[in-house]
Every structure is written in C-alpha cells, then in structure tokens.
Amino acid sequence: ILSNLAHSQDNLGAIAGKGCRWLVDAMLRASKRNEDIQRIGTYAMSNLAMNDGNRLTICGCGGIGAIVRAMKANSNAAKLQRYACTALGNLARGKKGENREKIKDEGGIKAIVVAMNHFPNSSGLQRTCLRAFGNLAKDDIGRQGILEADGIRAVVAAMRNFANHGIQEAGCHALGNLSMSEQFAAVTVDLGGAQCVTHAMDILDRNEEVQRCGCFALLYMTRGCLEKLQRQGHVDAITRVVEAAIDTFASSRYIRKYGKKTLEETKKVQCDGLVSLDWPILYLPRHQHEGMDPTTMSLQFPSFQ
Residues 19, 1: contact at Cβ < 8 Å? Predict the structure, then answer.
C-alpha cells in the first residue's frame, strides 16, 4: 500500500515519519531472503526517497542498511536490484553530503557496482546505476566511494556496451560530476572516460541532452587533465565534437556555456603554461528543466509504474 501511495507527490510528505520507519522495520524483520517482501520494500523506498523529509527519515532509521542487506541476499533478483539502486540514487540527492557518506560507509556504492557487474546486459539496470552515480558523485566523499568500488570502470563499461541515449546521457553526467575534482578526473581519463564521451557525442549528435551532458563532462576533464588528454591524443576529437554541438544546438544556453568554456581550455595546448580555473559545481538539468539554473538541480528518478 505504501509503495502505491508513494506514486503521488501529494502523498510523499504524508507518509513521512512512521510510514518510513515501519517500512524499514518490516524489511529488517522479514527474512532477508524473502525476495517478495524485500523487492516491494526497495520499490517503496525508491519512491519515498524522492521527498527531502523522507530521505532523512529513511537514512536515520537504518534504511540504507536494509537496502544493502536485501541486495546482498538476493543478488540474482534483477527487479529488486534495480529498485534498490534507484532507492540509493534518490537517497543520494541534494547538496548536503550526509546521506552520500552513509551510503558509502554502509556499502551502498559497492552494492551498485556488484549489481552492474552481475547484470551487464540489462540496459534498464545499467541506466539506473549510472543515474545513481551521477547523484553520488556530487562531492569528494561520493567520488572516493565510486573510485574505491571500481565504479568508474563500471560506468565506462556500460557506455561501451550500450548505444542508447539513456545510457549515454546518464554516463556523461556521471563522468562529468566525477571529473569536477582533478584527482578523480585523472582516473576517469585514464580509464577511457574522455573517449566514451566523445563517442557518445558522435553517435548521438542530434540528441540535445547527450550533447549537453557531454559538453559538461568534457569541460571538467579538460580543466583538470588537459596535458594528459593532449598526450593521449584526445584534444582534437574533443574540440571537434564540442564545436559540432555548439553549431547544432545554437539555441541551447548550457551547450553554449559548457562548450565555449571547454574550447577555451583546449586552446591552452598552444600556450607555454596551463592555468587552472575554479568554477562552481554544476548539476545538469533534465530536458524538461531547460532554462533553469543547473547549480540548483540534481537528477530525480521517475517512480516505477
């Protein structure tokens, strides 16, 4: 009942408190191998976690541990794994990092990577996990957790395995947020992140969301690792796809913004020295939020029907 009620935004706040605590308690009291109860529980939490108050309640009463416990005990249950990864991704939303730290410390990031490795051919699950990484990578705590769990390699593998726009968009967004910190940008580039982004922009050159996310990711990769990208021979490809994106989507405010700043970085390869600039964290908007300030936004997962 709670999971169905949580489909409505109007009900999310009303379910807060006792409803969330009851749900977590039910998952913990039930056998961890009772797939039906654990699947329904993670499904309900994936919807409830779209509310700010519910996120705090779920994390405060052991909800992250309950999700990870269910994932470990039911590793072959594809639907449960997808619902659980969605719940963890929604719990990681917001600018404050408390929930992201709890997800990392309680094994949630590792559980997402395990799910990706266990279901490499599930496009839906891979996309859900990439979106979760996009939210988890908003600060260095989450980025470190993804790095330690070998999550960057998992993102690159998913982008190489699927050509659809959902995977490519979510993958570019995750790699972009990971690359906002120079140390993680270096690992991302070494593992093939820049190649994945330029390939995505090549094969989906008419998809505005992919181009926006791609320009965003390349901006931070060039900002943090321009010399490395030059040594690896990627700068020309980056310049080419970004110029094409700006030409194709001349009316897109954010493609122009991220793209022009990326081109300013690539031009520095002709200079004697490289200058590091400090720009604020930007959370990419979804297509339906075109025109809104990306610094105020994060990805929200749709509820499951």
Answer: no
Closest residue by Cα to residue 45 from 18, 23, 73? 23
* 142: amino acid identity, one letter: G
The H-assigned helical ranges of 162-252 are 165-178, 182-190, 193-203, 208-231, 235-248
The rounded distance, in Å, linking the Cα atoms of 281 and 261 is 14
Distances from the Cα of 19 to the Cα of 8, 25, 26, 225, 268, angstroms:
15, 10, 11, 47, 55
Q: Are 80 and 74 in contact (CB under 8 A)?
A: yes
DSSP state of 205: T
Q: Alpha carbon of 247 to those of 85, 149, 169, 242: distances in Å?
A: 37, 38, 19, 9
Structure tokens, 85: 């990864």
pTM above 0.85, yes or no: no
Cα 145 to Cα 41, 60, 88, 152, 184, distances in angstroms: 25, 20, 13, 10, 11
Backbone angles phi, psi at 212, to 5 degrees: -65, -45
Point out the residues of the chain with pLDDT beneath 70. 1-19, 270-305
Q: CA dist 294 to 218, 255, 290, Å?
A: 16, 12, 9
